[in-house]
Please model this.
Amino acid sequence: MTTLPSAWRYPRVLAHRGGGVLAPENTLAGLKEGLRRGYRAIEYDIMLARDGVPVVMHDPYLGRTVAGSGNVYDYDAAELALLDAGGWFARAYEGEPVPLFVEFAGFCKAHAVWMNMEIKPAPEYDIETGGTVARIAAALFADEIAAGDMAAVPLLSSFSMLALESAREVAPQVPRACLMSELPPDWERRAQSVEAVAIHTNHKHLTPALAQEVRAAGYGLFCYTVNDPARARELLSWGVEAFCTDRIDLIGPDFIGR
Ligand code: G3P
Ligand code: MG
Model:
């Protein structure tokens, strides 16, 4: 286990896409499933609808998790909110709506659920999406930011450097993390360019040496999406500080300890 100082000030086990795979992803029902199991920290995805209103959504198109066809940006948020985001998962969830980001984030805050907000821009909407999510997050957590209670403030992450740059311009006070499936040789330059505090990476491509490199450079190190407890323990032994999981039934919120 690494003895480097930790740059990660947040919960260490997060439910992926709101509530893992026990309920439909990126829905309030999923979030509530996690709450029932003691989860108070989540990762979820945010995208803009046609009218620029952000919704909680992973895919840029309908059809997999939301009944319908076409792209997310073909619909206004109010229209998306009327579509079924739960029936694909099980009949019991039929009619579960596509959450509006503002309402979803407000619910999380009210229930003390810490948020890793993944900015998931639809193609060519990077700048608008990054800026919108950052502006809303900053407004929602204005009091915590003013009080210096940064552990409560969400962490914005994205695969899109443009989105992260936009988020930094709009609300530099909301921390950012670079999402990179596989760390490129210039990972640190990229992180510096958006003043990121953490690196979020696919555990499948991580090595002990890379984990050490990230930690030694002073960044938080988070992995997605870790569903096997033995693998989680291995990653922790490499110095990984936090991760998200789909299997909130196999890996509890206290898996690492607080
Ligand atoms: O934020 C980590 C992870 O969610 C990134 O991949 O496709 O599940 O959003 P994806
Ligand atoms: Mg995600």
About this structure: Residues 47 and 120 are 5 Å apart (CA to CA). The chain has nine helices and nine strands. The two ends are 17 Å apart (CA to CA). The chain has a mean pLDDT of 96.
